């Protein structure tokens, strides 16, 4: 019976740690850095500076009513015709957009003329198996041997974060 209790406690702790882990390891990126989300900024340069992984969050900051943030299809990104191909749009002026999937994303501002004026960018979100930004090996999974179990990189990255999470847990819990 006591063994079961210990196992249950361990499992619960692991679950809580995992939840904290996801938050601890996700990064929030201010779109445009100090320039925020505005006209006259090259956002392609900005997006290419960063290495995005699943769980990261984009933060669009702008004066409400002057701009918006639209996730669009690649076609709409190219044409800047946001009368079609808008997947989701945000207009609060302080928009947080979670990058929940490992895929390409395209964003534009739908205010007339702004997309053509440069308020557009694309980015690629990776599964998160690389802990070092700019590691080009992570972009070539097809060339790697499949001997390692799927998600092995995740596991290692998770372990590193778990150590940090457990460390912070001990500050708050009486054991
Ligand atoms: Cu705009």
From TrEMBL:
Pfam families for this protein: Cu_bind_like (PF02298)
Transmembrane domains' residue ranges: none
CC per GO annotation: plasma membrane
Domain of life where this protein originates: Eukaryota
Domain Phytocyanin: 27-127
Localization per Swiss-Prot or TrEMBL: Membrane
Keyword DNA-binding annotated: no
GO MF annotation, one: electron transfer activity
Keyword Membrane: yes
Signal peptide range in chain numbering: 1-26
Keyword list, A-Z: Copper, Disulfide bond, Electron transport, Glycoprotein, Membrane, Metal-binding, Signal, Transmembrane, Transmembrane helix, Transport
Membrane topology classification: Single-pass type I membrane protein
Any one GO BP annotation for this protein: response to symbiotic fungus
Major site of localization recorded for this protein: membrane
Name this polypeptide is given: Phytocyanin domain-containing protein
Protein's organism: Colocasia esculenta
């Amino acid at each position: 019976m006591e063994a079961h209790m210990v196992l249950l406690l361990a499992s619960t702790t692991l679950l809580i740690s995992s939840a904290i882990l996801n938050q601890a390891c996700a990064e929030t990126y201010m779109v445009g850095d100090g320039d925020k989300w505005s006209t006259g900024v090259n956002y392609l340069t900005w997006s290419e500076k960063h290495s995005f992984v699943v769980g990261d969050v984009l933060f669009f900051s702008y004066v409400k009513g002057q701009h918006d943030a639209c996730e669009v299809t690649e076609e709409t990104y190219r044409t800047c015709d946001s009368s079609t191909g808008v997947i989701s749009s945000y207009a609060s002026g302080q928009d947080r957009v979670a990058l929940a999937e490992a895929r390409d994303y395209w964003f534009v501002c739908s205010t007339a003329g702004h997309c053509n004026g440069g308020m557009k960018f694309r980015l690629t979100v990776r599964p998160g198996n690389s802990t070092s930004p700019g590691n080009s090996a992570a972009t070539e999974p097809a060339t790697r041997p499949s001997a390692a179990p799927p998600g092995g990189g995740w596991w290692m990255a998770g372990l590193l974060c778990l150590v940090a999470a457990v460390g912070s847990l001990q500050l708050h819990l009486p054991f």
